[in-house]
Amino acid sequence: MKVGQLIATILLLSVTCLLIACNHSEKPEVKRVIDPGLRLFFAIEMNGQVCGYKEMHLERVLTAAGEMNLLTEKMNFRMNLMGKQVFTKGAIDWFFDTTMQHLTYSSVSIDQGNLHIRSSLGITGDTVRIKSSSDNRDELIILAPDVRFENNLYRKYLLSELPQDTSASLNVQMFNEMKGRTDNKTYQWAGRDTLWLAENQYQTIRVEEINQTTGEYSELWLEENTGLIVQAILYTSNFKFYLADRDIPNRLVSARVDDILFYQVDTIIPDFKNLSRMKVKAVINSSGELLSVKNLNYPGQKFTGTVDKNIISGIFEVSHPRYDGKNAPGFPYDFPLDSALQNYLKPEFLIESEDPKIRKKAEEIVGNDVSDSWEVVKKLSFWVGTYIEDAIPGGGSAIGTLNIMKGECGGHSRLLAAFCRSVGIPARLSIGCMYVPDKGGFFGQHAWTEVYMGEAGWIPVDATIDEFDYIDSGHIRLGEETSFHPKEIEILEYSTGSGNTSSSGHK
Question: Is residue 3 part of a domain?
């Protein structure tokens, strides 16, 4: 079994929680600095460990378009993942008007192992132009009049617009630069606090923030006179940020990501790839998309319980059937022009299905002698599982994984999805967790691929662990863009294809 098979998107999710990734009109040319402004340092904690820092610099500059505020953020972050050291560096430049209300341009760079992302965003009037190296994107988006842009330093508008009433809330349409979409955020007054940070006292207002699109639940502490974010806790991502001394870069440790991604159940099932049924009681924290009881019920998976602020509490009953290819669509095949389905034929962030190298390799693997789309999927899945070497952090994106022929489960799954899309088969990522018998038995975050097979619907496959045309029933699906942060897990019952059955008692 591959060492990195249970690592789905934590490396990338950690970056997106720390940086608002921006995606180009022309970058304003800085002619001179008018006011050097302020420079602040923030500690980054993950699961209580100070493992990173952000340096933020706000200055007033003169450009060809006039005076602007230039906000620069630099970030460094360290993780220890299954014994592997992973280092992340990122930087953002934001160009705002002098009121810090209107964004003109932003750019981001992220470097994490073999993953390198370069993106930029430029705004003229109500038009946003996005360029991104992650999916070769260059597109124009028309904004609605009330859409806002955020930065990671101030929330000034909350001081004047948020009702000081715990029963009232403020809804804000916020542009999500990484996804090129608008997210709905809800803010609610939570009280006043006095905080001591970096040897200074701050009078703050505490604000609850819920991203109704991603399910992220956070609290922000804003200096009540300026709107400066002096502290923030991202509860569904296990991150905390707060103002710190300038020597914070010298006090870092590597965050033990294993502590938040894995949960020991002390139940060993050696024949786990033949799990045919599993019943699990779980409490899981998640972020990345807004979850509900309804969307946790899925073919092959039944969930009974509750979801509150993206905290899942209940019982999963899993029994994934194996698809035999019956009535599979031909190949090539014109899938229905349903808008939702067509999205899974297009390139997207980290799934660069229109990259010429990906298309050429997929066509080479498929060859000419295939009978239907299911046979194509099995060929592509076998190639990915056989020839892509296990690695942490790996290539990250689909093209990055193909370029270095290495990847964790996220890299395997994105590459397979990109291969399928490039030859005309709808495909998407599925993210959740899976059981493995290692270290006494545990569940860990995992990603796999789903392919659309016409009347049979979405069929899951897991090339990472050599389940080329199926997934075992130790896989629990949470969503397409979400994360897995377990709080409690207990196996109540399970069965394997060999007939072995057991019931509960182990946590």
Answer: no
